[in-house]
UniProtKB/TrEMBL annotation:
GO function term, MF aspect, one: oxidoreductase activity, acting on the CH-OH group of donors, NAD or NADP as acceptor
Annotated source species: Collybiopsis luxurians FD-317 M1
Family indicated by similarity: Belongs to the short-chain dehydrogenases/reductases (SDR) family.
Gene3D superfamilies: NAD(P)-binding Rossmann-like Domain
Record PROSITE patterns: ADH_SHORT (PS00061)
UniProt-recorded name of the protein: 2-deoxy-D-gluconate 3-dehydrogenase
Record keywords, A-Z: NADP, Oxidoreductase
Chain segments annotated as coiled-coil in the UniProt record: none
Length: 290
């Protein structure tokens, strides 16, 4: 490959990505990034509490010169606007969505078949498992219901989706699966036993699937975010003492933002990572190196 066309390996034009957890935070940033790289996007959205609620708003509210990562427009509407108004690779991408509660594993079993019906050519090339929840309590008091909710959402549902993706991708000998892990894939954390167990398990699941499917052209990798300024970390962000302790330990001297995952997710979703198999890409400002 010559220098002149080396950046083409990051292009996702003609590919279709199925993404969970894209309503906000890191998942939303990943959806924007993949769209800007040219991928068609299918969002898995939580069913609205009000059935008559319209999650889509007029796409004309976003303009080409505005920063999509800073926009308050709902993700589905924003991606539709990118498709309509962008002058870059996102121009003309196909944007679709389905409803599913990722914490309900029975509901999750229908996600992939339903998604195939609404995407171009009934083909999905990229799966991004980004949906996740957190529950905090001392381990001696940790409710069993918390455990079940976290393990179902963070580990069982990603397995169900990855298995369905594998059944679709392995026969075609092509596909990318990206699981969002955590620093607690490697560490234990405090008062988060279910979260640590789920993310540790997701890291091992990533490697197990990679061992089986890499030879078939299906690349399974993970991304482990460090301390990121999102709603999930609100408890830490609102604790001045703990916040200062964390800031002092991060070599980059700042918390991450959802935008910091644009490059990593494009890399793992594209041909640029075709010899990257079963890896957990840590995006943490240097935290794990301390």
């Amino acid at each position: 490959m010559s220098f002149n066309n080396s950046l083409n390996i990051f292009s996702l034009k003609g590919k279709t990505a199925l993404i969970t957890g894209a309503s906000r935070g890191i998942g939303r940033a990943c959806a924007i990034a993949l769209a800007q790289a040219g991928a068609n996007i299918c969002l898995v959205l939580r069913p609205p509490s009000n059935p008559s609620q319209d999650v889509n708003i007029p796409s004309a509210e976003w303009k080409e010169n505005e920063d999509p990562y800073s926009s308050s427009i709902p993700t589905l509407s924003l991606l539709s606007a990118l498709s309509l108004n962008s002058t870059g690779p996102a121009k003309g991408i196909h944007v679709s969505s389905i409803y599913a509660d990722i914490s309900d594993t029975n509901s999750v079993k229908s996600v992939f078949p339903r998604a195939l019906k609404v995407v171009p050519g009934e083909q999905i090339d990229i799966l991004v498992n980004c949906a996740g929840i957190q529950r905090r309590a001392p381990s001696v008091e940790f409710p069993e219901s918390y455990w079940d909710d976290v393990l179902n959402t963070n580990l069982k549902s990603p397995f169900i989706l990855a298995q369905a993706a594998g059944q679709h991708m392995v026969p075609r000998k092509s596909g990318k699966i990206i699981n969002f892990c955590s620093l607690l894939t490697f560490q234990g954390g405090i008062t988060v036993p279910a979260y640590a167990a789920s993310k540790g398990g997701l890291g091992q699941l990533t490697k197990a699937l990679s061992n089986e499917w890499s030879s078939q052209g299906v690349h399974v990798n993970g991304i482990a975010p460090g301390y990121i300024a999102t709603d999930m970390n609100e408890a830490l962000l609102n604790n001045p003492t703990r916040l200062q302790q964390l800031n002092d330990r991060i070599p980059a001297q700042r918390w991450g933002t959802p935008r910091d995952f644009a490059g990593p997710v494009i890399f793992l979703a594209s041909e640029a990572s075709n010899y990257v198999c079963g890896e957990i890409l840590v995006v943490d400002g240097g935290w794990m190196g301390r």
